[in-house]
Amino acid sequence: MASHLHAASQAITAPSASSTPFAAAANALPSVSTPTILVSVFIGLLVLEQFVYRQKKQGLPGDRWTIPLIGKFMDSMNPTLEGYKRQWDSGELSALSVFNIFIVMASSNEYTRKILNSPTYTEPCLVHSAKQVLQEDNWVFLNGKVHSDYRRVLNQLFTRKALSIYLDIQDSISRAHFAKWLANPSKEPSPIMMTCRDMNMETSLRVFCGDHIPTHAVREISDKYWLITKALELVNFPLALPGTKIYNAIQARKVAMRWLEDAARKSKVAMAGGSEVTCLLDAWVKELTDGDSKGKKDYSDREMAMVVLSFLFASQDAMSSGLIWMFQHFADHPEIFAKVREEQDRVRGGNREKAMTLDMLDQMPYLKACVKESLRVKPPVTMVPYKALRAFPISPNYTVPAGSMVIPSLYPSLQDPEVYPEPDRFLPERWLDDNSVANANPKNYLVFGAGPHRCIGVEYTTMNMAVALGTAAMCMDWTHHVTEESEKVQIIATIFPKDGCLLKFRPRDS
Ligand code: HEM
After folding, report:
1. For this chain's UniProt record, which GO biological process terms are given (predicted)?
2. What dotted CATH number matches 132-507?
3. The pTM is what?
4. 454: CA distance to ligand 1 center in Å?
5. d(Cα 339, Cα 426) in Å, to the nearest integer?
6. How many CB atoms lie within 10 A of CB 1?
7. What is the pLDDT of residues 33-46, one digit of tens each?
8. Which ligand 1 atom minimizes the distance to the CA of 447?
9. For residue 275, what is the DSSP state?
10. Distance from Cα 310 to the centre of ligand 1, integer Å
């Protein structure tokens, strides 16, 4: 390459270059070798990387220089709540970079809500690998009108009528799992993380797909989905090479999709044959054929399967986190648990076998306040990565560059001491007083996000958590082996107790 450049300069200075003083000086220079040029280019790119980072960051808090090439990749591999808190405490908006992806993190309620409510400037990107795992054309990546049209159809799957069908499934599956837990009690307290996740996965799969999925496939999907959860780091190694987490997640998704497409096909056959609605897929097919839903009427098996995949994605992880923390909160607060039990006994008329109904749930304000508070104290989702579609003037002083990741953080709003005095404490009572500061500031309750992409599963989630914990309170007692790590958080996409939540269950005493 050096000789080629040299030839070009000769062409410009011809015909008698050697006679000029410049050429004489050039000839006197030592010739530049290829490795030297490569090293120079590499150093130039590193300098450019720092220059671009600082240009984008402008005056935002954040590292003055980014670690070459990888940025904060090592931190994002092992994220900690303490690390996030440091970032949030550094400013209402702050900057970082991972693998040259420029990231703006918002910590205040105002900026967080602004990002969530600006669909012309931002769209959810979940985490960086999500499009590879869930597939580009999954409805969760739609934005604007096409998203709201799609979502209007899906909202039909969470009406009170549909929820009451799901409630029966949730009730019977949680009872079956509790019976199993009690039949094989561990001698010592043991981590309930995976036990709870298994229950939640079976509940979700049966609610979404009913018996259109065989029992052995429930186990297979549940196991495979764990590989998907593990791949959901904020930013992954960019290439899906065999052995990487993203590669494993993509293979897992392929297996899950095969079963889910098969379930969609079977549901259509069952509904065409006049069967009863027994699950979400059935409710969807029935709505399309009988209902007055406007717009698209025909969804392929693959499209339906991708919707269920997105629901599973949210429910198996966030809901498992929510359930585990609630088991822990009840064990650590016997006075609160006693009130829950009193309410359960009263509404169920002392009948421990009585299945939950939506009307009964309406008479359980204390249990519902516990669900709301448990999700606030330990919000499963601490932040929701979005992407800036174009330059986004988020404040008078700062514009998020187009293409950046922009992350609204939910945790700081949920722990705001002005709105939630003693924010670390589990205090369900704060929701029972209509005039409490918590109830006066609903904008702070960001557990499920806000704006056009706010969680579609809110009612489903709160209902499932109430059914599971209400039923557990009716039939079991449990104790928590508290360790130094019980209140600390491990982040596996969502947050879990660092010690896995060590519980010991036994049949209810009295
Ligand atoms: C404790 C449990 C859950 C929590 C904490 C949670 C939280 C969230 C949050 C924070 C978002 C992002 C909202 C935004 O961008 O503003 C979201 C979106 C979503 N959630 Fe949930 N979620 C939970 C359970 C579920 C369940 C069980 C389902 C399944 C039915 C579900 C389905 C979804 C979907 C499909 C979206 C994307 C909605 C859209 O883009 O329109 N979630 N969730």
Report:
1. sterol metabolic process
2. 1.10.630.10
3. 0.88
4. 7
5. 14
6. 9
7. 888 888 888 887 87
8. 5
9. P
10. 9
